Amino acid sequence: MIGLTMETLDPKAEYIVKNGKATAVILPLKQYTELLEDLQDLAVIARRKNEPTIPLAEVKARLRRNGALRR
Q1: Any residues with CB less than 8 A from the CB of 12 and at least 6 apart, and which?
Q2: Were both Cys, which of 1, 8, 48, 69 would link to 63 (CB 3.0–4.6 Å)?
Q3: Quick one: pLDDT at residue 1?
Q4: Residues 4, 22: contact at Cβ < 8 Å?
Q5: With contact defined as beta carbons under 8 Å apart, do 13 and 28 qualify?
Q6: What is the tens place of the pLDDT at every residue in 7-63?
Q7: CB of 69 within 8 A of CB of 63?
Q8: What three-state secondary structure class fits 55?
Q9: Helix or strand or coil: residue 64?
Q10: Are 59 and 69 in contact (CB under 8 A)?
Q11: Element (DSSP H or E) covering residue 25
């Protein structure tokens, strides 16, 4: 863990400590689910980082043609 001290630990989580070091964590289910969603988002970003970008004007034009965006 990078720079992890007892002061920076999440107060909503419970920590398993061995030999004075946090070795595991018990999180509220909602927080765990949010972390998994964040990891999934980061994985998508990493996979798509080399894809070409589309100008905003083109995106808007496509959305208007498809009826998903009004003026």
Answers
A1: 27, 28, 31
A2: 69
A3: 42
A4: yes
A5: yes
A6: 555 778 888 999 999 899 999 999 999 999 999 999 999 999 999 999 999 999 999
A7: yes
A8: coil
A9: helix
A10: no
A11: strand 21-26
31 with 13: CB under 8 angstroms? Answer: yes
Q: Are 70 and 64 in contact (CB under 8 A)?
A: yes
Instruction: Flag whether pLDDT at 3 surpasses 60.
Output: no
Distance CA(26)–CA(17), nearest Å, equals: 11
Two tokens, residue 39: 């990891």
- pTM for the model stands at 0.57
- Residue with the bigger pLDDT between 1 and 15: it is 15
Kindly tell me the sign of the dihedral angle through the C-alpha atoms of 47, 52, 53, 58: negative
